[in-house]
Amino acid sequence: MQVIDAKLAERVEQSEMRYMVDRMRAMQERPGNPMGVEIARFGNAVALYAREMPWPQFNTVKGLSEAEAERVDEVIAWYGDRAPQWEIIPSRGGQALQQRLAQRGYYQSGFHSSWFMPLVLESRQSDPAAETGRETSSGEWRLAELSLADGLEQYARVHCLATGLPLSGAEAVAANNEVLLGRAGWSFYLAEAEDGEPAGAAVMHCADGVASLTFAAVLPQYRGRGLHQALILRRLEQARASGCTLAVSQAAYASASARNMERCGLRLAYTRATWSALP
């Protein structure tokens, strides 16, 4: 059994940084950069900013370590009057970094858990549908991987309704994800109930042998019926079929999503600290 250590924790963190940078870069490459995306590197850390997307996950600093605590001021200067979120994992954070953030007006505002699962490639032939990337059924659900021809209208509607966003934002959600559909490493999944109605959606990013389960959401009326677990298992099978040796994901600590990850075989890698600007 593979156990967590600092080296594996950093691999988990790097996979999370990799998919987020690729996602932001894809949005930045849209004609005219309508979301106002900016990306900067500071040593091993990356700073992300999206002018038209004020949510913390799109305005965050990832990968800063204790050894680079002196770069906090450099990062703050780059953001200017924009106050970013800072994500610090246990194996890379220390007193010097935390003190520097506190001195600059930031405080630890929360926690978030990251999960991992070594993938056994010998089982990659166990699911022919996963091998081809087509569709499977799991109990009462039909899970299909979206293709370029499918469009993202249904995905965007599920994304909004399942996460509490207004449906008026579906067009923007579709546009920001359309640039990923067909982009190397990205896969989108839509789940339908027995009556053919969309019930859930999920996304996965694969690179350098690591599969990141980046997003999954289930409509409220279909929750508690095993669909979230089915979406996790479907992506794990596809990751094995794609030759990945490690799967990673994130969830709010002790949340329903985290419990489903554990039920599907993922284990806790670490609980990172989230730092935010003081009000």
Write a structural description.
The chain is an alpha+beta fold. It has two domains: 6-114 and 272-277, no CATH class; 120-244, Aminopeptidase. Helices cover 32% and strands 30% of the residues. The chain has helices at 6-28, 72-79, 95-103, 128-132, 153-163, 170-178, 227-241, 256-263; strands spanning 37-42, 45-50, 60-62, 85-88, 106-118, 135-138, 141-145, 186-192, 198-207, 210-218, 246-251, 267-277. It has a twelve-stranded mixed beta sheet, sandwiched between helices. Strand 9 (198-207) and strand 10 form a beta hairpin.
SSE topology sketch:
Layout: H1 6-28, E1 37-42, E2 45-50, E3 60-62, H2 72-79, E4 85-88, H3 95-103, E5 106-118, H4 128-132, E6 135-138, E7 141-145, H5 153-163, H6 170-178, E8 186-192, E9 198-207, E10 210-218, H7 227-241, E11 246-251, H8 256-263, E12 267-277
Parallel strand pairs: 3-4, 10-11
Antiparallel strand pairs: 1-2, 2-3, 4-12, 5-11, 5-12, 6-7, 7-8, 8-9, 9-10
Helix pairs in contact: 5-6
Précis, in short:
By secondary structure, the protein is of the alpha+beta class. 32% of the residues lie in helices and 30% in strands.
